[in-house]
């Protein structure tokens, strides 16, 4: 049964979901001065308890974003950690939850305004990708990935998602599920809301951190799981043409989780069916996020 979110945490206080407020001229909205994290909490099928996956890593990345954005007096990591746990607890979900933790400038002003920083944390239900077993149809976008010397992808700023949205809407209009974005040099970067991995000759390849990617928590997780399964991992620049000759391709991210790619630019990836390594990694990912294995208990923060 799908649960509904009735409570949101705003600036540390639990309030009814519909009552969260920010002024339309707040710098966080008017100039996109806002950073956020998308986090998931998973239910264990046996204990029925929820735990948040890799909460500390998300909080570290958010700290980096707040520093980069030069926020005055940002909320502490302890406050935000508590906010995440409270947002889940307050809604008592009977299933997985998707958590959006967002920090923004609440002051009114202009591009040079810093001022009062506010935050919200919402736990909401979120469907899993309907293509988890069948695979996505992706298209290489004619839009270019945002560059590090303009709007760094490494910083999870809400404003980055303007570029991601343009590419996503175009890819849907063109009949694809999602775009693959290339860097200005024409190397593979990532999708609009997830990182990309290829498998060639049994080796998992993922674009390096200087490929204008978000330094994804899931990507790091999957690289570690692959190594533990004995799959060699290469973190390096990847050519566009490698997408067409890869044996397997998949996307990974908190929201997408781990989803196979069936076609790219309407060419089948491998034989067009989800690959063996991809599905092995999907299974391994599922068991660490949900805690159906004892491995990596340090990645799961129980919601208590
Ligand atoms: N790239 C982009 C552009 C994203 O928006 C996301 C989702 N946050 C990811 C990659 C995956 O990051 P993570 O694994 O940390 O959720």
From TrEMBL:
Q: Which residues cross the membrane?
A: none
Q: What keywords does the record list, in alphabetical order?
A: Amino-acid biosynthesis, Aminotransferase, Branched-chain amino acid biosynthesis, Pyridoxal phosphate, Transferase
Q: EC top class, in one word?
A: transferase
Source organism superkingdom: Bacteria
**InterPro entries given for it?**
Aminotrans_IV, Aminotransferase-like, B_amino_transI, BCAT-like_C, BCAT-like_N, Class-IV_PLP-Dep_Aminotrnsfr
| A family per Pfam | Aminotran_4
Q: Kindly give the Gene3D superfamilies that the UniProt entry links to this protein.
A: 3.30.470.10, D-amino Acid Aminotransferase, subunit A, domain 2 (3.20.10.10)
Q: What is its EC number?
A: 2.6.1.42
The reaction(s) catalysed by this protein are: L-leucine + 2-oxoglutarate = 4-methyl-2-oxopentanoate + L-glutamate; L-valine + 2-oxoglutarate = 3-methyl-2-oxobutanoate + L-glutamate; L-isoleucine + 2-oxoglutarate = (S)-3-methyl-2-oxopentanoate + L-glutamate
Biological pathway: Amino-acid biosynthesis; L-isoleucine biosynthesis; L-isoleucine from 2-oxobutanoate: step 4/4; Amino-acid biosynthesis; L-valine biosynthesis; L-valine from pyruvate: step 4/4; Amino-acid biosynthesis; L-leucine biosynthesis; L-leucine from 3-methyl-2-oxobutanoate: step 4/4
Q: Which CDD domains match?
A: PLPDE_IV
Cofactor dependence: pyridoxal 5'-phosphate
Select a single GO molecular function from the record's annotations and give it.
branched-chain-amino-acid transaminase activity
UniProt xrefs under NCBIfam families: ilvE_I
Q: What does this protein do?
A: Acts on leucine, isoleucine and valine.
The family classification in the record reads: Belongs to the class-IV pyridoxal-phosphate-dependent aminotransferase family.
What is the name of this protein?
A: Branched-chain-amino-acid aminotransferase
What species is this protein from?
Roseomonas alba
The lineage is:
Bacteria, Pseudomonadati, Pseudomonadota, Alphaproteobacteria, Acetobacterales
